[in-house]
Amino acid sequence: MQGNVEREVAVNQLSDPAQVERNDMLRGRMQAAMADRAFEAYNFGEGVVVVGVSDWEFYAAGHERSREVYVGIETRDSRKNTSTRLGLTVRFDPQTGALAKVYAQDALGSIFGCMPQEQLEKLNAEHQVRVSNPDEPLPRQARGAAAYEPTVEDVENVLRSNSLAVANAKGKSFDSMANEIHGDLDFDLVEQAALTGDDLDEQTDYANDEIARQLRERGILEPLKQACDSPSPGI
């Protein structure tokens, strides 16, 4: 008798439009969180730096998410760095909602990097906890790869574009200054600024604006000049 009641409740929930909508919203929230954390945990390879990302796109009836990821290879000569566009795909188990597969591919379809198995198992264990407690937020994971991480070349470009505002180069080249400055940037603030952009070009512009702000704050660039007030009529 109890089993019949439980089945009837389940059927009523499935036929209740409000409940169906709530379940879809909950699944979307959980998938979004898991996709973000899978991206953070993905191992793109030694010396590989993520320099930009696109928004997530949805495929396969809500059981797959994909985004473009732009990566650069760190070399001794940062001026020779080039960015590569990858497609990162996150697939979910249609039955359980757990992560089924995470992989990145280049333009030729070759797999790039890998998803560490221990990270996959950890995220799926957290997923089980979240299913039981859907209103509890997921703990923040230490980032393995920033969504947007500025390079030495980015700093050099900011110095060059503000060359007349450099306070005191002390005879150093912009390349040398950029190498010294880069490690002292607040990468979190640069990332937050970049991710307000809708595409890679906007992300780069916003990131460079934040780098310039930090350089002005440290006295490396001169403060922005205040615009003169327009004269009042008759003066």
Task: Write up this protein.
By secondary structure, this protein is α+β, with helices and mostly antiparallel strands. It has 2 domains: 9-132, Nuclear Transport Factor 2, Chain: A, CATH 3.10.450; 152-217, no CATH class. It is built from 7 helices and 5 strands; from the N terminus they run ααβββββααααα. It has helices spanning 2-15, 17-41, 117-132, 152-161, 174-182, 187-194, 200-217; strands spanning 48-53, 57-59, 64-73, 83-92, 99-105. Strands 1, 2, 3, 4 and 5 form a 5-stranded antiparallel β-sheet that branches. A hairpin with a 4-residue loop joins strand 2 (57-59) and strand 3 (64-73). The radius of gyration is 24 Å and the shape is elongated.
Label the overall shape. Answer: elongated
Strand content: 15-25%
* Secondary structure: number of strands: 5
What is the CATH architecture descriptor of the largest domain? Roll
Low-confidence stretches: 1-13, 137-145, 227-235
Quick one: CATH class of the largest domain? Alpha Beta
Query: What's the N-to-C terminus distance?
Result: 91 Å
Structural class: alpha+beta
Residue-averaged pLDDT: 77
Alpha-carbon Rg, integer: 24 Å
- Counted up, domains total 2
Portion of residues within helices: 40-55%
Oligomer: single chain
Q: What is the N-to-C order of secondary-structure elements (H for helix, E for strand)?
A: HHEEEEEHHHHH
Largest sheet report? 5 strands, antiparallel
The count of helical stretches stands at 7
What's the SSE blueprint?
Blueprint: H1 2-15, H2 17-41, E1 48-53, E2 57-59, E3 64-73, E4 83-92, E5 99-105, H3 117-132, H4 152-161, H5 174-182, H6 187-194, H7 200-217
Antiparallel strand pairs: 1-3, 2-3, 3-4, 4-5
